[in-house]
Backbone:
């Protein structure tokens, strides 16, 4: 099987970041990759995006942190992570050894925090790109999320870009009036690509107990339920910017990936589906190779933005 | 640790009581590596609703080839599973988590309430073989006789001394398992392994703390993945912050946890 696969061109480029295939795993759904090693041949993947890292460790929110909803789930993990220093000391070795491009997702409460994390990661070997989570509240601006105000989104992008030696991906929040405005702002800030969508803010209530499903009351919706919204936003964004777009939102099957690429995505990230089938990303790579071969396509890239509307 | 994601065949499905179902699944790989206290994540179907797998502790293994789960029908996932048929296949991930610590040198008591009895059957079977000269005593409780008697039968088959209790007095002691425990004559080095509802485990923990007895508890939480990725299955710990039931547990030393009156 291996040699047949090699004949198929699944490679894509996110600016200067070259991937052997367009399938990545989304931040917060794939741990630090080694959790999935029993199930997945990690080096078959296009890239892995690790759990979001902040400057200081965060313990996260109280329980319950997750609740299942129709065709999806809500989470309010509260960005639990070990912090950038322990991430570098404890997680990078196994990530480097897994022989797959590693994308580090970062988050912060202030512009300075983003800048500082990016600076600390700049000297670390084995990081292929930085993905910036801009859905976090800016504590110095009254808790308004960076990703909802074009000027703040641009500023945080520029700050990270200035510190980084690797490509910078900015992960966009869907909880905005017009995502293309934010996409253009981060492009102006120097983003090498954008990934979207992050979770949609939602809520669930148990009418019997009259309590919210999450201790945090509100949380982020993910899973197949959000796919149509994600597809729409990827489609709009791909037409609004000239940098590559990475599609995220309810992706599980080869067909899902094809749809996102037709809408204009150059690559995709698989998120919640990793929880249900830890091998889903590798299955998708195999399925894509099969598809390209059956369709006798020269390259998977032929699909990007090839939506037929006439 | 080795884990598997497999399509496993249902070789037997039994309705032990009105809402209590036991499913036997065939997997030499999962069975041969499973330790008492470990769990599996099971998909209830192939569709998107319900989306997530459901966690089940392994309640018994046999012949190095079969393992069982035991559950009460409490929601949509368990409802769907209860209607499965023999011969069907279920997608199973496991064995997962850290199980019970077994020490045969001390007297052991296994204490189970309701569906929390499930993993103790596996533990009891394991200890009945391993701790031959010092077999554990078993205290199990449920609301009423129909829920308890099928499980009582399984423990008796192992030849272990069993002390049943029911809330309504329809079988064994009339009261809670903690009451039975309090009336027992316990050696100072007694080790207690507990699985059951939170208030029951809390009460046992407080009892053990007062008597300075070793106590391990198996915690139940909601979880999305079961493998340390979603970070949903947290348990507050004494030293501050949280542990993750799927990877640090589900079995914990009761002293490590931060217990809260709920």
Residues:
């Amino acid at each position: 099987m291996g040699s047949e696969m090699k004949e198929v061109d699944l490679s894509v480029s996110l600016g200067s970041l070259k991937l052997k295939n367009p399938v990545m795993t989304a931040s917060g759904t794939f741990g630090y990759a080694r959790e999935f090693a029993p199930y997945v041949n990690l080096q078959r993947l296009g890239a892995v995006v690790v759990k979001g890292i902040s400057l200081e460790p965060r313990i996260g929110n109280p329980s319950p942190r997750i609740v299942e909803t129709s065709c999806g789930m809500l989470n309010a993990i509260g960005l639990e992570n070990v912090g950038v220093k322990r991430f570098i000391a404890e997680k990078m070795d196994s990530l480097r050894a897994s022989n797959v491009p590693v994308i580090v997702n970062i988050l912060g409460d202030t512009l300075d925090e983003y800048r500082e994390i990016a600076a600390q990661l700049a000297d670390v070997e084995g990081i292929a790109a930085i993905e910036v989570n801009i859905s976090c509240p800016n504590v110095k601006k009254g808790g308004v999320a960076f990703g909802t105000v074009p000027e703040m989104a641009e500023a945080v992008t520029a700050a990270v870009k200035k510190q980084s030696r690797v490509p910078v991906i900015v992960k966009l929040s869907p909880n905005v009036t017009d995502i293309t405005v934010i996409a253009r702002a981060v492009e102006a800030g120097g983003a090498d690509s954008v990934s979207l969508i992050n979770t949609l803010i939602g809520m669930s209530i148990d009418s019997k107990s009259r309590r919210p499903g999450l201790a945090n009351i509100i949380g982020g919706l993910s899973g197949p339920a959000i796919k149509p919204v994600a597809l729409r936003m990827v489609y709009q964004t791909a037409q609004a910017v000239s940098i590559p777009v990475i599609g995220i939102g309810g992706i599980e099957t080869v067909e899902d990936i094809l749809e996102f690429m037709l809408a204009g995505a150059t690559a995709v990230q698989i998120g919640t589906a990793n929880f249900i089938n830890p091998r889903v990303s590798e299955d998708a790579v195999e399925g894509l190779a099969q598809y390209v071969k059956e369709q006798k396509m020269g390259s998977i890239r032929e699909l990007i933005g090839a939506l037929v509307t006439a | 640790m080795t884990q598997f994601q497999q399509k496993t065949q249902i070789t037997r499905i039994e309705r032990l009581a009105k809402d209590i179902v036991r499913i036997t699944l065939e997997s030499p790989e999962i069975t041969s590596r499973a330790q008492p206290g470990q769990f599996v994540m099971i998909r209830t179907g192939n569709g998107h609703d319900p989306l997530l797998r459901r966690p089940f502790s392994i309640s018994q293994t046999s012949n190095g080839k079969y393992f069982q789960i035991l559950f009460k029908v409490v929601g949509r996932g368990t409802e769907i599973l209860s209607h499965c048929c023999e011969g069907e296949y279920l997608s199973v991930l496991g064995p997962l988590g850290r199980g019970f610590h077994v020490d045969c040198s001390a007297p052991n008591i296994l204490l189970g309430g309701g569906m929390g009895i499930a993993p103790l059957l596996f533990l009891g079977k394991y200890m009945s073989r391993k701790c031959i000269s010092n077999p554990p005593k078993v205290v199990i409780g449920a609301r009423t006789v129909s829920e308890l008697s099928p499980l009582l039968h399984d423990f008796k088959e192992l030849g272990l001394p069993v002390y049943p209790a029911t809330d309504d007095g329809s079988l064994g002691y009339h009261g809670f398992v903690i009451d039975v425990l309090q009336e027992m004559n316990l050696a100072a080095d007694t080790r207690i392994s507990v699985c059951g509802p939170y208030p029951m485990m809390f009460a046992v923990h407080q009892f053990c703390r007062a008597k300075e007895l070793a106590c391990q508890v198996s915690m139940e939480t909601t979880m999305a993945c079961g493998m340390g990725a979603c970070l949903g299955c947290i348990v507050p710990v004494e030293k501050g912050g949280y542990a993750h039931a799927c990877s640090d547990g589900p079995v914990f030393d009761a002293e490590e946890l931060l217990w809260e009156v709920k």
Residues 104 and 134 of chain B are 6 Å apart (CA to CA). The two ends of chain B are 34 Å apart (CA to CA). Chain B has six helices and 16 strands.
